[in-house]
Amino acid sequence: MSELNDFGGGQDPSGGVLVVTTNDVPGHRVVRVIGEVFGLTVRSRHIGSQIGAGLKSLMGGELKGLTKTLVETRNQAMERLVEQARARGGNAVLMMRFDVTEAADVGTEVCAYGTAAVIEPLD
Q1: What is the pTM assigned to this prediction?
Q2: Residue of 113, 114, 93, 110 lying closest to 25 (CA atoms)
Q3: Cβ(123)–Cβ(31) under 8 Å?
Q4: 3-class secondary structure, 46
Q5: DSSP assigned state of 88
Q6: What DSSP character marks residue 118?
């Protein structure tokens, strides 16, 4: 179970904001579109994981230390996205996406972004 937690991610269901990668939510209607929201984080590279990754790349296989760090980073970006949507009065984020880029050769920038909206169940 620990590996599932280390290498998985996604939304905390208790957050009060539904995050989906689709344009709409089945069984709901969009009452109001608030606009773009994003959550951003930049993580520096840990020297130990870089050395381990370098050695592992010689032999092949998954870089579990880097995978775990990226999962944590994506989850933090998503938490910030949800905070922004909630702060602007939204209860949903539609069309959520991640963008990952190198940040000045010292780390990784992860941005979760989407459209904040207010949705309600259909009658």
Answers
A1: 0.79
A2: 93
A3: no
A4: coil
A5: T
A6: E
Do 98 and 10 form a contact (C-beta atoms < 8 A)?
A: no
Which residue in 24, 28, 9 sits closest to 98, CA to CA?
9
pLDDT digits (tens, 9 = 90+) for 20-71: 999 999 999 999 999 999 999 988 865 555 555 555 556 667 777 777 888 8
In a 10 Å sphere around its CB, with 0-12 CB exposed, 13-18 middle and 19+ buried, how is residue 117 labelled?
buried
Provide the 3-class DSSP secondary structure of residue 16: coil
Give, in order, the Cα–Cα distances in Å from 36 to each of 22, 58, 116. Answer: 15, 42, 6
State residue 1's pLDDT score.
43
In 1-123, which ranges are continuous DSSP H helix? 2-7, 47-59, 64-87
Read off the amino acid at residue 87: A
Least Cα distance to 100 among 57, 53, 40, 54 occurs for: 40
Beta bridge partners of 117: 33, 92
List phi, psi (to 5°) of 81.
Answer: -60, -50
Angle at 37 (CA atoms; ends 113, 106), nearest 5 degrees = 55
- Nearest CA to 66 out of 100, 97, 21 is that of 100
